[in-house]
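Exercise: predict the structure of this protein bound to NDP.
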Amino acid sequence: MSAKLFDLSGRLALVTGSSRGLGNTLARGLAAAGADLVLHGRDADRVRREAAAIAGDYGVKVSTTLFDVTDRDGAARALDGVLDTVGVPDILVNNAGIQSRAPFNEIEAKNWDAVLATNLSSVFYVSQPITRRMAERGSGKVVNIGSVVTLLARQTVVPYTAAKGGVAMLSKGMAADLARFNVQVNTISPGYFASEMNTALINDPEFDAWVKARTPAQRWGDFEELVGALIFLASDASSFVSGQNIFVDGGMTSVV
Ligand code: NDP
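Solution:
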């Protein structure tokens, strides 16, 4: 009974930005728990290649969809195609995101717009066509990917901080409106992970030392360590959990 709580067999999961990076690890984690997938990205070849690899590795069905998450109309068209031909996802993970670094006084408007559109507005664009159908069905799980900056700021990443802070509150707002339809919406906020997005930081000895000193676990995280929280939030195990923001950060946000 208890293991069944976390079983995703027969569920359909759509993860944005899942042909590489964290989204790919999360999609693979869901597939390992039994979920069929809709893999998403913008590079058709890479998405197709990864879909075939995941289907082979886990024996689940993997469909694909291609769209820019900042293009509301394009996303809606692509998602209509998914809803009509593949089905209504049981699980939606809004993972696609970008970073842009500059001190506040030097932020260019185009970079502000891009970070807000990709990290925050996209969650609205991608979620709404799906949560409407989840509400009709009477079940669904949405997991939005935040960051430690949903709680704490850091220099040179103001647009990202504003967007991710917005994601945590967007999740709470969605949770408030969608709970009556048995749709749970939560945020997972990763700390610092050894990833492509962070290559420059990992290679910067000063930053690397700061992360290790600032994180009680004294190390960078591994993407695989986010999968447990996702399976919890994507499964029946979290049927009465909504609007929460779970930090997977080696203790970083628990200490001063
Ligand atoms: P990567 O840069 O490795 O990957 C970003 C992903 O987002 C890619 O799959 C990319 O797709 C997709 N993406 C970006 N812009 C768009 C767009 N306009 N339309 C469609 N897809 C887009 O980043 P990570 O994997 O490291 O980060 C994933 C998420 O995790 C982000 O939300 C990030 O903020 C968050 N996060 C990451 C942390 C880390 O340590 N790495 C820490 C905290 C949070 P494509 O292949 O088409 O480019």
